[in-house]
TrEMBL record, chains A, B:
This is Nicotinate phosphoribosyltransferase. Pathway: Cofactor biosynthesis; NAD(+) biosynthesis; nicotinate D-ribonucleotide from nicotinate: step 1/1. Its cofactor is Mg(2+); Mn(2+). Residues 17-144 form the Nicotinate phosphoribosyltransferase N-terminal domain. Keywords: Ligase, Magnesium, Manganese, Metal-binding, Phosphoprotein, Pyridine nucleotide biosynthesis, Transferase. InterPro entries: Aldolase_TIM (IPR013785), NAPRTase_C (IPR041619), NAPRTase_N (IPR040727), Nic_PRibTrfase-Fam (IPR007229), Nic_PRibTrfase_pncB (IPR006405), Nicotinate_pribotase-like_C (IPR036068). Gene3D superfamilies: Aldolase class I (3.20.20.70), nicotinate phosphoribosyltransferase (3.20.140.10). It comes from the Eukaryota. GO terms for biological process: NAD+ biosynthetic process via the salvage pathway. Belongs to the NAPRTase family. The gene is naprt. It is an enzyme of class 6 (ligase). Residues 421-529 form the Nicotinate phosphoribosyltransferase C-terminal domain. The lineage of its organism: Eukaryota, Metazoa, Chordata, Craniata, Vertebrata.
Amino acid sequence: GADPSEARSIRERVPPLLTDLYQFTMAYAYWRTGRHREPAVFELFFRDNPFGGGFSLFAGLHDCLLFLRSFRFTDQDVDFLRSVLPPATDPAFFEFLRGLDCSGVTLRSVPEGTVVFARVPLMEVAGPLAVVQLLETSLLCLVNYASLVCSNAARFRLAAGPRRRLLEMGLRRAQGPDGGLTASRYTYIGGFDLTSNVQAGFLFGTPVAGTMAHSYVTSFTSLEEVWPQTLVAANGDPDPVDFISLTKGWLSRVCELLGAESGKIREGELAAFLSYAIAYPHNFLPVIDSYSVGCSGLLNFCAVALALSELGYRPVGVRLDSGDLCSQSVDVRRVFKLCNEHFSVSTFDSLIIVGTNNISEQSMAELNKKENEIDVVGVGTHLVTCTKQPSLGCVYKLVEVRGRPTMKISEDPQKSTVPGRKAVYRLMDTEGHPFLDLVCLAVEPPPQVGVPLSYRLLGDDSVHSVTPAQVTCLRQEVFTRGEVTHPLCSAKETRAKVQVSLQSLHPRHKRLQDPDSYTVALSEKVHKLVTEIRRGSSNDSNFLWAN
Amino acid sequence: GADPSEARSIRERVPPLLTDLYQFTMAYAYWRTGRHREPAVFELFFRDNPFGGGFSLFAGLHDCLLFLRSFRFTDQDVDFLRSVLPPATDPAFFEFLRGLDCSGVTLRSVPEGTVVFARVPLMEVAGPLAVVQLLETSLLCLVNYASLVCSNAARFRLAAGPRRRLLEMGLRRAQGPDGGLTASRYTYIGGFDLTSNVQAGFLFGTPVAGTMAHSYVTSFTSLEEVWPQTLVAANGDPDPVDFISLTKGWLSRVCELLGAESGKIREGELAAFLSYAIAYPHNFLPVIDSYSVGCSGLLNFCAVALALSELGYRPVGVRLDSGDLCSQSVDVRRVFKLCNEHFSVSTFDSLIIVGTNNISEQSMAELNKKENEIDVVGVGTHLVTCTKQPSLGCVYKLVEVRGRPTMKISEDPQKSTVPGRKAVYRLMDTEGHPFLDLVCLAVEPPPQVGVPLSYRLLGDDSVHSVTPAQVTCLRQEVFTRGEVTHPLCSAKETRAKVQVSLQSLHPRHKRLQDPDSYTVALSEKVHKLVTEIRRGSSNDSNFLWAN
C-alpha cells in the first residue's frame, strides 16, 4: 500500500504563507506595539449546520496538526514577505518571523470524525497573540471544506442506507488536483466505501475502484480487434479456449432466451467486453449503456459473463451510467435471474449493479424509495462540490487576551461571540443519545450524572433545567509545546469514528429533511459573563469618554 | 518577488496517479490486446456555458502543459499500481508504465484566457491510445475548475464595471489549501486585481492586499496598550510627536464638526487604529465597523487619518464589512468631503472605501446600480466556490482512433459527439466582433474572408450561409514530442489576454442575464461525416449480425 513517509511529506506541505496578507500586517502591528507574546485564545466554530440539516461532522484536525507541527518560515518565505509588506516594516520583525514556530501553541479540539453542531466551539487555539492570529486562515481552510464534504458524504450515506456501497468519483469536478484529493479523503471518512482517485489510495489507503468508460467501448468496432482471442480456464487447465466462439454461442442462447433481436447487437461493444474479460477475467464489470442496454449492452454482458462462468470465473457485474437507473436495474436483475434459472449459473446470483448518473442527495434519497437493484452508487459532482451548500462558513474568533475574556457584541445575538476559555460537555439521555451540548467556563466543575443542572440559551434569558444520564467532555488537548499529544488517526480509523458518532445520534436530529434542532446551551456562569460584558460594554471604560 | 523555480516545482507536481482507476484498467486492456500504441485523438469541451451566461473563459492550459511535460511514473507509483490493479495484470504492463511519458502526445489548444463557447473543442489530445486515455481525468481536473472560476471572476468583473478594483479573499472557503491556491490564480486571470492569499503572490506574482480584521480591533481595550505612542513626521523631522495626544485633539474637532456624541466612541478601537497607524503610517486602512461605523469607527478613523495627514502621511482608506455597504459608503464619503472642506486636508479626497460582505454576482450587479462610493470590493465564498454553478462539466471524448473517425451516437443530438480531427475557426463581423465558431475537418481549407460559406448546426439539417469579415484559427499546437512548443504565459499575461478577448465580444453575448446565444457551427464536410456515421451506424457492420 501507500508509503506513509511520502503521504506525510505531501500532507505536511501546507506552507505558512498560505494565509491572508492581513494576518501578517496584524502580526506586525502586534509585534510593533509589543503585544505579540500576550497570551490569546481563539475559538473555531460555525454558525449554521450545513445543508439545512441537524448536524455536521468535524473533520480536518489531522491536517491541522500536521500544519501546526511543521509551521515554520523558510528564508525564501521571509524574503517574499519582505517584498510584499510595507517598506516601513521594521527588519527585526522578519527575524522574529524566521524564528517562529508553534511551540507556544496549545490546541484543544473535538476529536476528528465527531458529530458536532452549530455554535459549539470545535477548536480552542491558545498561544502568543501574533502566532495564533497568523494561524487563522490556514486552520479555517483546513477545517472548512474537510468538515463540509465529510458531512455531505455522511448525508449521502444516510440517504443511501447502510447496505449500498458508495463510490466517490469527483476528481474531475473538484477545485483542481488537491481539491480532488481532499474530497477523496474526507468523503471516505464521511462514509463512502471507495474512490476512483488512485492518488488518494496511494496517500490515504482509501480503497480504489473502477473498470471502464464509454470511450473504451466506442474505441472498438470489430471482433477482429480482440486479441488474444483465447482464455485459459480458471482451474489452470493449460489448453486455451477460443473465447470469442464460446461467447458467440452463449450470445445466441441469451438472445433466444430473452427473445431479443440479434441484429441490434453492437459488434464493437462485444469486442470491447471480450478484450476486457480476456485481460481481467476475474474483474469483469463493463459499462453496458454505450449504445442500448436492452438491445445490446446487457446481451453482450450476459454472453461474456456466461462464457467466463463456464471457464470457472466469477463475473463481477455491470455499470449503468444514464437514464432511469432504478427501472433499468430492475430489468437487468430480472435478466440475471432468468439466466441463472435457465443456464444454472450461480455466479449470476451475486452480480452487482453499479449506478452512476449525476447523483444528488435528493436523487439518492429517491432511489432509496423506489424499487431498484442497485448495489453500488457512484457520486461525483454533487458530492465533491457540495452543490447544495458549497461552503461551511467556519469562523475563528478571539475569546480571551491577556487573561481577559473578550466578545464581539452584535445586535444579532447569533452574531455575537461567547467570551472566555471554555469546556464543552455533551449530555446524553438514558438511551445514550446525546441531547445537549453545554458550553461552560473552563474553570467550572463538569456536570454530574444524575444531578439536575440549569442552563441558558444564547440570546434568551429564561432558565432551563435538565438531568444528564451520561456526560462526556467533548474536547481534548491534541497539541502543545510543538508536539501532537494525541495519536494521529488514519482515514480508516476516523471513518469508523464517524459511524459510531452518527449511530448514537437520535434519528430526530439525523433526519435529512426538517430535523429537530439540537440544543447548544450556555452554563449559568457563561451566561453571567456574557451579561456582565454586555452591560460593561454599554456603560464603562471601553468608551473613550465615559459621559 | 517569487522565485520561479519554486513556483515551477509546485505547479509541476500533479502526479500521474491523480486520476481515476479505470484509466489504468482500460490502459491495461488496450495494452493486453495490443492496441495501446494505436493513434487516437480525444477532444475536450463542455456542453453548456456556465452560470446561464453566453460565454466561458478557457483556463488551465498552463497547468496542463506542465503536467504533460512531467508525466512519468516513479517506481513508487508503479509499486502502488501493482498493489491496486487485479493480480491477473501481466507484470510486463508495469514495465510499460515505468517507461511511459508524453513524447508521443500532441496537444492542440485554444490559447489560455480566450473567450470560448459551449461545444467548441477546446483541446485536441492526439497520441498513443493508452497514453491519451490515461491523461483524461488529470486534464479534466486541471481545466474544469480553472475555467469555471476564471469565468466566474470575469462575470464579477463585468458586474462590477471596469472602474472598481476587485480583491479575491476566498482562501478560507475553498476546497482545501490547493483549492484555494487554484482559485487565487484563476480569479486573478479572470479579472480580479488583488488577492489576500500570500502564497498565491509568492507562486504566481499576483498582487496581494489586506490590512486588518475585527479580531485586531477587539483585542484592544485601552489607549494604554498603544506603544510606541509617538510617530515621527514623514518629512524625516527627527523629533517624535505624541501621536495619541495629536489624535485626541483631532477627534474632538471631528466630533464637533459632525455633531457626534463623543461618549459612544470606543477606546479599544481607537487604540487599535493608533497602534496600526504607528506601525504602518503609510498604509492606514482599518476596518471601521467592529462596533458602530457612525458612532465610533468613522470618527476614530478620521481622527487618526487627520493626525497622520498633519504629519505628512497619506492615509489609505477604510473597510466596511457588514450592513448596507452602499448607503454606508455614501455616508462615509460625505464625512470625508466634509473633513476635507473643513480642515483642508487634500489627502481626504483620495481615500478609498473597501466593501466586503458576502458579495455575490447579483449583489455586485445591484451594487453597481445603486448610488455608492465603494472603490474596492472583496469577494470570497461566492467567487471561489462558484455557488451559482459549482462545476463546469468538461468532457473528454474519443473522436478518432487508428485514423477512423468515431462518434458517440445519442438520441439527444446535444449528447452526441462530433467525429474526426478538426480545425476550429472564429469568424468576425466587420466591426471585429466574433459571431460564429466554425468546426471544420482538419483537412478542409480555412474559410476565406469575404467569401460566403455555408454551415450547419448540430442536430439541424437546414443550411445557413455567412460571409466573414475576418477569420482566425482558434487552436494552435502547444505541445509535441514531449516539449511545450509555445511560450508559457505568466498569470499576468494571460489576465491581459482575457480582457482583450472579452473586449472583442459583442455586448449581446456578454450580457450576464439572458445573453444572445453565440453560434457554434459545423462545416458541410463535418455535417456530411456525422450523417454518414449515423447512417452507417444504423445499417452496417457495426452490428454483430447484420440482418
